[in-house]
Amino acid sequence: MNSSGDAKVKHDVSFTVNGEVKRLRVHPMERLLDVLRNELGLTGTKEGCGEGECGSCSVLLDGLLVNSCLVPVAQADGSNVVTIEGIAAHSLLHPLQKAFLECGGAQCGICTPGMILAAVHLLEKKPEPTQAEIREGLAGNLCRCTGYMQIFEAVTKAAQQRVAT
Amino acid sequence: MRADPADYKLVSPGSLQSVLSLLSAEPNQWLPIAGGTDVMVLYSAGKLSNRNLVNLWNIPELRQIEVLPKDIRIGAACTYTALRNHDFISREFPLLATAASWTGGIANQNRGTLGGNIANASPAADSLPALLVYDAELTLVSMRGERRLPYREFHTGYKETALAPDELIRDISLPRRFSGYVAHTRKVGARNAQAISKVCLAALGRIANSTIQDVHLSLGSVAPIPLRLNETERMLSGKKVEPSLLEAARRTVAHEIRPIDDIRSTARYRAAVAGNLVVEFLEKLAAESANS
User: Fold this and answer.
1) What ipTM goes with this model?
2) Residue A85 and which of A157, B70, B88, B221 are 20 to 30 A apart at CA?
């Protein structure tokens, strides 16, 4: 990223997405969300509100949960990004994905990628979360159809399984 | 109408000095952006009038938290997550750590910054009343030099501030002299996360010999700016906490605030809740002082 930055001029950015280095020519103010979906074809990351209120565009940026609709892509230059497509190990589902399936934690599916990313982030910081910590960890992710109880159950179950194994 | 990214510049000079040099060379032309939790919302909605943005996210000098003998200095680009996770802030400045935990959800706390919240100057921001009661001081820097400004003088009107066009907030310092105080904060809103407050209180107080020695009160969402309740504080100082004082406090608070009707609440509700929150704090202050 150079500092001369004329409008209308694209810039080179490179970052790692789900373990692969990506080099792109983009406008620096493009939203990370749009670059992931439109340039890289990673459409698992959803757009809900587009203003940081709903969490459906959640990804991990250098290990931290962020709303990708609020990140200009230039700020992701040199970073490590993980999207929902990078959560399963090839065909092996992540314990959280399995638990969401088993507990009925996904219905229409729009909030699910963001919920899973928020839950992954939570369990990395707090491997044995209390119910209050689960609710706080997912408080930025809104669901309008599944119901939060099944989602909380899924996170609880995944945490128990991870601790047991 | 959604913004077209091709219409915008975003430059990343990478050091504080080079950002200041840009702001000095072309004042009013560049909008600083740190975590983007305010700026990107306006941008996405096509409502950002500035076309030129300068990146503060990658400037390490703005991310430091320094604990000094007499104060703590928080770099303006420290995130809410950094504030929450800092043991010293949780211990000596619990009102700020708690307010940080109420700001947005986890994803916004990972990006939103204290300096950004101050510069954005929303009267509803949850962390600003805490800074007011802790007597925060700002360091403002530009190519012309640096100056210290008591935070209580920073907000000059609704979304108006004392920041000059070529200046940045470099750090926020909090004096370490409130360890013996009773601290209390309360947010009243639809929910804690992702909901902007209807009313938010931060309060500090100290009682000796059954009388109030010192009291600091601040409310969010009840005036065009985050409000320090100077008049109520003066009225309470030197008094005993008793029922007549609580009623007098309610009246003075009602006189001092300027709440409005908006999508989140009504002026009448806000006035009633503001009085209740101050009374709740005074009762806690008296109870905890009696037990100690």
Assistant:
1) 0.95
2) A157
